[in-house]
Batch of 4 targets.
Target 1
Amino acid sequence: MLLTFLDLAGVFVFALSGGVVAVEKRLDLFGVIFLAFVAAASGGVARDILIGAIPPYALQTWTYAATASAAGLLCQFGHRAILRLAAPVAVFDAVGLGLFAVVGARKALDAGLSPLMASMLGMITAIGGGMARDILTAQTPMVLQREIYALAALLGAAVVSLADWSGLPGTPAALLGAALAMGLRLLALSRRWNLPVARPKPRIRPKRRAAREDEPGEG
């Protein structure tokens, strides 16, 4: 029951992040609902394909589509109230990140994956929806350019995986992992923490050879 609740909660908040972006991009009603569903379901679809759960769970049940559609409608008709929140897309994204990280890790463990691979699958589940949302709206994915994002999801998923490996209770581990991922992501946003960025050296253009004084001039 806890896993189902966390999963649907993650679907709703990620769908809100997709719906808010769609409204900001002035998409029509279909576009808002579609982008909300893509943001909510893409990470889970990628996870299920990788663990061999075909067809993906998001396409087997009506709950994903209904939850994402409700979030999309809320964004379409209540976007003014939603946009009054501070940085709504980033906040919704952080909450969804933590919830999907622990759900993805738990499902990967149930499929028989090792704790390391389950942590990686938890991270993929968490970042997949945001990446799909940003790509469809012609933006560089947040995971590639902003404050700590994928690392927060990986650490949250790792808490669930390590607890399972150690034989500790799963419910407290899931709540702790989700809180860790959310908290780290929001803290990184407020403190502007970033991982090191590659800075290529500028190319040094060769200087043009000075004209020789002994070269004959014109006239």
Target 2
Amino acid sequence: MLDNNYIVGLVDGEGSFNVRINTHKRRRAKVELKFSLKLRHNDKEILDELQQFFGCGNVYIQRDKRERHALCYRYEVQNRKEIIEKIIPFFIENPPRIQSRKRDFALFKEIVHLAQQEPLNIEKLTALKSQMHWGLAVYGKTVRTVETP
């Protein structure tokens, strides 16, 4: 069985707190939340144990067609209620230790709180989201809001 310190270390190294803001012109804006962790296929049992530990989420196969990339599995929690009731309380009690992950979790938690309020403050949500994932800039990537016609 996994213990809290092991999970925090695993998430510090391989986990991610993600937010997608979907502003569809024909529908009301939507904030999609996701906690995930990806490991190589031969470590899938760890993801299964993580799913059992939290009592939520799913483990998916993630095939990557890029050259020299191994077959991976991903543990994901996208259900808002499960994120609010299980994932966030765990990481409040057992905060990430790596600064970038700690910052992402703090922003994620604030975004989750704001996403529960009506009307949605898209500008504030987008501003908070843009501060997540420090490392992406190094690779020339950005975090953006998805706008669909």
Target 3
Amino acid sequence: MGGAAVAALVAGGIVVAMVGTLAVLAIFGVRKYVGASKQAEVENSIGYMAKAAASAYERERLATDGEDRAAVERRLCASASRPVPRDPQQTRGKKYMSSRDDWEVDKERDAGFACLRFEMSAPQYYQYRYEATATSFVAGGRGDLDGDGDLSDFRLTGQVHDSSLLISPQILETDPEE
């Protein structure tokens, strides 16, 4: 083999190595982009739930004191009786298609997602929950995007302080890329 042939082989090997490296970087970038777009679902959804909790808190409701006197009261929606979907395994590495009944299970007692007036009509990657006390709430989502059994967790909290509802400016994330 002549020197020109060896040089051509070396140059070809370098080109193949560079193309391979670029392909690996492209796959990594696309995977990261897809994961971020899926995380946007949960971040937008729990942000909307928090805003819905604030709107529900501001709705005027009449309360009686037992002596036929009425007053306007502010209160948080009571907790949802169950998350949607019930089992986080239903979103393990795949989307879940909820029904309107999933979101309206607490409608008769004006609690949970029905009180928040929150529901999802598109397939979802995450399990959603809403938990509340008289003075605080947690809007959250759990998911397993890669299907390995480890769950990511996203939470947005709110707290009543001096008759005002303060919502955390930051979403708390645990293992967001799971």
Target 4
Amino acid sequence: MSGHSKWATTHRQKDADDAKRGAIFTRLGRAITLAAKSGGNPEANFKLRIAMDQARAQNMPKDNIERAIQRATGPGEGVQLESISYEGFGPHGMALLVECLTDNRNRTGHEIRHLFEQHGGSIGSPGSVAWQFERSGVVTIPSLSPDDELAVIDLGASDIRRSATEVQIICPPGNLEGVRKFFEIRGQEPQTNLVMLPKETKALTGPGARAEWGKFLHELDENQDVQEIYHNAAAD
């Protein structure tokens, strides 16, 4: 006679959730450490401020954030991280930029290339894909009033995107700090980020295309060195 243990199922799910959370914290910590190499004061180091904002948005503990900064600013060499970007074409010809942080360039390059080729894609040469994207600042807030919308347009916002749960304000990187401060002065805590947005998107068509694309993105995201994935596939 076989039985089913609800506790065992719950325990396995908790282990999986903890492992996923740990992987997210590892990535965030690496980004903080790399940014902190240019200075440990977030008021004077905007990249560090952004990395810390992202960590707080994921509920990363304060102690973890401080340790990540200490790894860059404290005594000793520690682990040497390197930022590397890969450009290429994935399934169905979709363009991708994959940003990585690694302590072993050869290992990461081999793994990323293998993932592309495994899914019928290929790594391109530098510049082969990047021209299809534009570096942009993104400020995320829960809601936006009509008056504030006019104000952020005056501050340089180029696009405003709304969903059921949040509002994203898109702006040139040079305007990101001004838009962030606009909301902070009003007592809000906006999330800020620098991203690569596609200039145009491309629809996924054909039987199984969406599932194949999703599997490829999932396997890329599972790689320990991958920090960000940008692509031009349309959401719908």
